[in-house]
Amino acid sequence: MPDNAQHTMHIDTALIREWQQSGDYNYLDEVVEVDSATTNSTQVVTKKGTPSTSFSIPPLAVWCCVGVLVLVILFFAVRNGWFMGFSKKKSKKKEVEKKKKEEEENETTEGTLNQEEVFGFDFQKLTAEALAEKDYAAALKYTYMQAFRLLCEAELLTWRKDATPSEYAALDTGVASEPFRRITAAYVRAQYGHYEVTEDNYAAAKADFEELNNHVNAITAERRRKAQEEAEEGERTAREKGGEA
To answer: What gap in Å lies between CA 28 and CA 34, rounded to an integer?
Structure first.
């Protein structure tokens, strides 16, 4: 290589080193300016030429990301019915608890019927007095007692010391069975289950009693008719035998 070429290369290299060390031409600062202008977050080159790894995110951007994430979660929760499922489970739990409570309330321990109370009171009078005071629970009780005594007098039931109202209702009393069972159910519910008795409840029990009374009267009338026929038949037979004699 010619001498002048070597000298030129030597001068160029020397000049470059001089420029880099000069305060008028700061190469590293220009690099920082270029990086800052082209990107929001890159590695920053210091004046010593050592890359800095610090990374800074504005707080507002962080909260925006969190807000978007929360909205996405809520969207999928509503879309997939997560809240509805939780609500249904809670509602179902309340329904089960309510049903259990009702079953516990319906569990009653029945007492037996006192013989003196059944056969020793004027229930028609007591019922009228209870209705005058709008005590429908008492009126229902007296109506049941009157129905029970009516069946006993018709020999369709027999009083027993250890029998409960439900046990009497389970017995077959012919056509009177159904209305008596309904009256018994209403009486047991009010007397031992402590349920409120409204005017409508009593009216339904009264209608059942009237139906039962009609059945008992029909049964009693049929018995009398048969007894009459048997008596007449007996007299006829006796006369025939007397005539033959």
So the answer is: 10
DSSP 52: E
CB atoms within 10 A of CB 112: 14
Instruction: Tell me the C-alpha distance between 165 and 171, whole Å.
Output: 10
- State which amino acid sits at residue 97: E
Instruction: State how far the Cα of 32 lies from the Cα of 26, in Å rounded to an integer.
Output: 10
Other CB atoms within 10 A of residue 140 CB: 25
Q: Which residues contact 42 (CB under 8 A, 6 or more apart)?
A: 35
Q: Which amino acid is at 101?
A: K
Tell me, yes or no, if the pTM score tops 0.70.
no
Rounded Cα gap, residues 97 and 84, in angstroms:
20
Residue with token string 């499922």: 85
Quick one: 94 exposed, middle or buried, by C-beta within 10 A (0-12, 13-18, 19+)? exposed
Is residue 151 a contact partner of residue 180, using CB atoms and an 8 Å limit?
A: yes
Q: Whole-angstrom Cα distance, residue 90 to residue 104?
A: 21
pLDDT band at 114 (very low <50, low <70, confident <90, very high): confident
Over residues 125-142, mean pLDDT: 95
Are 148 and 160 a contacting pair, CB within 8 Å?
Answer: no
Closest by Cα among 37, 56, 54 to 46:
54
Domain locations along the chain: 3-52, 115-244
